[in-house]
Amino acid sequence: MSVGPDLHQRYVQACQNLGQPENPFVAHVLQEADKNDKIGWTKGITLKIAGNNHLEPVQRVTDDHLQVLTSVLHNTVFVTGLDLRWNVLTDAGAKHVATFLQENSTLRYLNLMFNDIGTSGAELIARALHKNETLVYLRMTGNKIGNEGGMFFASMLQINSTLEKLDLGDSDVGTQCLIAIATALTQNKSVKAINLNRPLLYSQEEETTVHIALMLRNNSSLVELHLRKHEMKNFGVERLCEALYENSSLRYLDLSCNKITCDGVKFLAELLKRNQTLEILDLNANRIEDDGAIYLHEALLLYNRSLRALSVVSNNISGKGLVAFSDAMKTNRELSYIYIWGNKFDEATCMAFSKLIQTGRLKPTCTDVEPYEADGRVHLAELSHGLQKHYYWTPRYGEETNKAANASLEIAAVSEH
Questions:
Q1: Span of the secretion signal (predicted)?
Q2: How many whole angstroms separate alpha carbon 79 and alpha carbon 77?
Q3: Is 323 in a helix, a strand, or coil?
Q4: Which domains occur in the chain, in start order?
Q5: Which of 95, 217, 252, 288 has the fewest CB atoms within 10 Å, i.e. the most exposed one?
Q6: Mean pLDDT of each 10-residue bin along the chain, 417 residues long
Q7: CA-based diameter of the chain, in Å?
């Protein structure tokens, strides 16, 4: 077995050379990596230097700390992932990231979620990816790069042919950026998952949804698409459904937190009758009500056998619609995950879902409700399971080992790393 580099010792030396004080949290992570390095030499390791780590005392990483760290990792081939979420990196730190991406040939996963990187930092990172041929997954979530910063990533998607997963959620991108990204993805064949959650849109015309729908007609590689908080209404859903009749690759569609009513769900139900590709559908926080639930029930009961996970959390659905979902699950054996909390539970709903769980048809880890008895009646309590349980946070006890509690990780083909 060849001897790998001593990351901690190199870090101490680099701090001295650059005249920078050591970050104790970074030093600790590197020491732990040195202890476990024999496994990492063959499989590659991810250095988890998250600023919201609850298990260790954390001093958040600054731009200067990052400069030292990237100098240490410059020629370290077995570090394939770098998790720097929830730190205090700015555009100056993005410059170090960009230099590292241009010179490094092994990093596959980079998480910069919720730092303070702006437009100029986004430009540096996006331009670095014009030449980088190894990075597969990039998370820029929560960095306020704005529409201009997003445009640099749209341009990058026209050139880069390696990146498979890009997360630009909560980044204040706008209409121009969304249209540019949709246009780029019409030709890009490598991106398999993209998150475009919560853009800043000032029009009610749904132009961005129309362009995304046009992209879906021509794109045959995208597996996962997140369109949360797009102000999408029934018109936009109809455009998406029309496009998805011609799409045979998309498996995960996130339409949560929009303005979809039962009329929009009618288009989705018709799509599900013919589409045999979609496996995850997230309609969390819309307003489909009982009529929308009945439309979906009919499609799932009689026609669709591909959908595996459905979220209808907080959709103003009463007992009639919720019991219809439980009936569909009795016949449709493929639908394994269903999330219903935040609707109007009645006694029939509680009994129906309690029976599904007790008979083993619905596993407790595959739903967000748990039955209990009080005063001789069955009730449902909430469980913290969902499609994206750990999108923004990680549990205080460490990594979540039960992927079933976070259904998208268990089902979707596009891996976390």
A1: none
A2: 6
A3: helix
A4: 231-416 (3.80.10.10)
A5: 217
A6: 69 94 96 75 85 90 97 90 97 98 94 98 98 96 97 98 96 98 97 96 93 96 96 97 95 97 98 95 98 98 96 97 97 96 97 97 95 94 88 75 72 55
A7: 71
